Amino acid sequence: MKKTIIFTLLSLALCLPIAAQDVRFGALAGVNVHTANYLDAKMGFGIGAKAELGFKNLTEGWYADASLQFESHPWQVKFDGLGTNLYKTFTEHASPWYLMLPIHVGYKFPVSQNVKLLVNGGPYVGMGLFGKLKYEMVKLDDKTEEGTTYDNVFTAKDGFGNKIQNRFAWGAGVRVGLEVKDKYQFILGYDRGFNQFYSNFGNSRMGLYSLSFAYMF
């Protein structure tokens, strides 16, 4: 399934220029808030490059948007002692980094002479690169203990042989924003993961809200 999805997206990326009339490139940077199921939201950020391709033989305004982004998707989860008499609270927090490839199709609506409304959506794939899992434990005497549980959440396994965090991610997302003077883009986005995110919670799915700025050359 993973190979099929990745192959489909890469094939789409290679075929898009054939149907394109205008191609331009840009750079982008932004912040995100990761809200995976059962995990606490934290803020991350990312940088990357993007390409836009205007389609031939379609009403002016249709375009494809693809980008390659280096992003952090931090998360944490907090446990209470619950009568274990071992600690008061135990918090795990991680800052995994991904290489993300979203491929979207959208439309640009003219708002004024220099402003356009952008709307697009489509699938994405991501590959986890690295990121530590750390902990903070508040003991019964209120002393705090900190340490590193795993040096890389994508390669480490728990006591049952399960991966701590899946290296590959895929899902779909939507974007809405404004383009000013055909150069500056201000974009709000949401991505929803389709595969399991974190092994300790079998139904966990990635949810990512983002705010980014792009400059088109």
Q: List the quaternary state of the chains.
A: single chain
Distance between the termini: 36 Å
Determine and state the CATH class.
Mainly Beta
SSE pattern: HEEEEEEEEEEEE
Instruction: Let me know the largest β-sheet.
Output: 8 strands, antiparallel, barrel
Q: Find the CATH topology.
A: Porin
Strand content: over 45%
CATH architecture annotation name: Beta Barrel
Low-confidence stretches: 5-10, 16-20
**So what's the overall shape?**
elongated
Number of strands: 12
**How helix-rich are the residues, as a percent range?**
under 10%
Number of domains: 1
What is the count of DSSP helices, taking H or I runs of 4+ residues?
Answer: 1
Keywords, separated by commas or semicolons:
single chain; 217 residues; mainly beta; Porin; eight-stranded antiparallel β-barrel
Q: If you had to describe this structure to a student in words, what would you say it looks like?
A:
InterPro entries: Autotransporte_beta_dom_sf (IPR036709), Beta-barrel_OMP_2 (IPR025665). Keywords: Signal. The chain has 217 residues and is mainly beta. The chain has a single domain (2-75, 100-127, 166-216), classed as Porin. The chain contains one helix and twelve strands. The strands form two sheets. An eight-stranded antiparallel β-barrel has the order 1-2-3-6-7-10-11-12. A hairpin with a 3-residue loop joins strand 10 and strand 11 (184-193). The radius of gyration is 20 Å and the shape is elongated. The model is unreliable at 5-10 and 16-20 (pLDDT under 50).
